[in-house]
Amino acid sequence: MKEIIRTEGLGKYFGEMAAVHEVNFTLKEGIFTSIIGPNGAGKTTLINLLSGYLLPDTGQIFFRETDITRMRPEKRVKIGISRSFQVMNIFPRLSVFQNILLPVLSCLDKNSRLFSALSHQRGAIDEAERILNEVWLWDERDLPAGQLSHGDQRLLELGIAVASNPQVCFLDEPSSGMNPIERIKVLELVKKLSVERKTTFAIVEHDMDVVFSLSDWIAVMNRGQIFAEGKPEDIRNNQEVRDIYLGEEI
Amino acid sequence: MKKALAIFALVFLLAILPQFAGKYLLYMTIHIMLLSLFSLGFNLLFGYTGLLSFGQAGFYAVGAYACAKILLAVPSLLVGIIGGVAIAGVASFLLGILCIRHTRIYFSMLTLSFGMMIFSLAWKWRDMTGGDDGLVGIPRAPLEIPGLLRLNMAPMQNYYYVVLIFALLAIYVFHRIVHSPMGLTLQGIRDSETRAACVGISVRNYRLVSFTIAGLYAGLAGALLPPLETTVTPPVAHWSYSAEPVLATLLGGIYTFAGPIVGAVLFYIMKDIIVRFTQYWLICLGGIVVLLVMGLRGGVLGIFFGKGGQG
Fold first, then answer.
1. Which of B175, B176, B199, B209 to mutate to test the interface with A (most CBs of A within 10 A)?
2. What is the CATH number of the domain that holds A164?
3. Quick one: B202 exposed, middle or buried, by C-beta within 10 A (0-12, 13-18, 19+)?
4. Which has the closest alpha carbon to A224: A5, A9, A27?
5. Residue B310 clears pLDDT 50, i.e. is over it
6. What is the DSSP string of A53-91?
7. CA angle in degrees (0–180, nearest 5) for B169-B175-B179
8. If you count residue pairs, one on A and one on B, with CB atoms under 8 Å apart, how many are there?
9. Consecutive sets of 10 residues in chain A, 250 residues long: mean pLDDT of each?
10. Residue A213: which domain range?
11. Would you tell me which of A113, A175, A231, B82 could form a disulfide with B181, CB atoms 3.0–4.6 Å apart?
């Protein structure tokens, strides 16, 4: 399997606190990867660094063989790296459809068009409609996104993340705040998208049943470092991981 | 269909207005159109991009002074207006580079300071601007396209038609802009800057475009002023003048296309009525704005189209 993202000695420090410290992490193409760990382990910071939302203090990030350590987030999207947010981050006043249309236009490099009518962007509209169907939001397409239920907003968030047609997509707790049924539904959708769209997903998730059933690879973080990674069964049997995070529940 | 009919009726009414209206009504209508353009541009920044500028009068003044200077040197209306707009556009582009680096209150304060800087220039740079006397004796030069036409602008109604045509064109262009992919992109930035960046939008560039377009509209409104008044004085650059599009937009509704236009009409009607009874008309206006902000965030059009109406 080819690697798609690689970090070398990646670090981010907030004062005395090492949020991410000396992380050497490799994401392989087509491998559904989960990043797990207790609260404050540095999972979200790692995603923020990889997506360009934060700049690292030390180390480097490579996308395929390109050094993207200091590349701006909007540029990273253009080369194929996308993300969703842990705290809801959608466009609340835009309609559900427009929420998806915007990243599609951006992906096609068409959002700087000043005078052409939106309704003439046929290609982008078709693609946005296809994604709306994929994330089961077709019936809600004309609602302002801010009026959707929490679960639907999470689906929309996922839709926005995949609408720019990324090669790698980081999802930060895609099912947070959902009930168990919605949670399984949304994570199965992620799995389905990863197969159909050939996007490599890396997700941060707290539901261990889901993590162990969906993932091909699991990285466990604690205190800013990745201290174990491997196939689900290896992680399940790793005594250290059980001590720190999993307890005896698995 | 209903909407198209209403717009057609309104344009028709405006077109035949000089046939039955007196000079004062025409004068008022021109001012309403200027404030409409001024407020539309302001609302591209505020309602569509989420940036509250308190310095738009600066660009209005640049347009007005530039047009006045040109008209004093070259008596051709079109050259004056287009020149004024272009210079205001350059000014807003350059100051925009500095202002759009910040958002929220920091952006507002920056625009306020740059606006007041332009005011100081108008006030102090006597050789160029005439200082507190302003520029006087600006000709309402004829509209001239060499070899094609020459229209005398001395009668107010002829100039009224020039303003009307500019206003209709500018409103049409504005409609195209906000319904284009660019318009959607600006609204996305307004809703969530971080999300916009994470779908591949270079937020600063789009903010700069929005700022420049707002400056061009302010400049156009400003450039249409000197031929009407035949003078330009520093108060047009003052921050209190920047408040007019803010108030008009809040009155009409910030999230509707026509909000600023409706607001401009209401603003002038209220000003005209209240001022007949008391010189403290601004207190009354302030009270109305307080009511609107507390009770009707969507402005007057928000009442009819719902808060998120796209009118």
1. B199
2. 3.40.50.300
3. buried
4. A9
5. no
6. SS--SEEEEEETTEE-TT--HHHHHHHTEEE--SS--S-
7. 150
8. 107
9. 87 87 88 87 89 90 89 89 85 93 88 81 88 88 89 88 89 84 83 85 85 87 86 83 67
10. 3-246
11. A113
- Tokens 């930060």 locate to A172
| Cβ A165 vs Cβ A193: under 8 Å | no
Supply angle C-alpha A145, A147, A150, rounded to 5. Answer: 90
pLDDT of A246 reads: 67
| A52 conformational bin, left if phi > 0, alpha if psi -120 to 50, beta if neither | left
> Which is more confidently placed, A116 or B39?
B39
Query: How many domains are there within chain A?
Result: 1
Q: Could you count the other beta carbons within 10 Å of the beta carbon of residue B236?
A: 23
Going through A133-223 in order, the beta strands assigned E by DSSP cover: 168-172, 200-204, 217-222
Tell which B residues from 191 to 250 touch A, by Cβ distance under 8 Å.
Answer: 191-192, 194-203, 206, 209
Residue B105: count other Cβ atoms within 10 Å of its Cβ: 9
Nearest CA in chain B to A162: B199
Q: Are B208 and B45 in contact (CB under 8 A)?
A: no
What's the CA gap between A124 and A164, in Å, rounded? 11
pLDDT cut 70: percent of chain B above it: 98
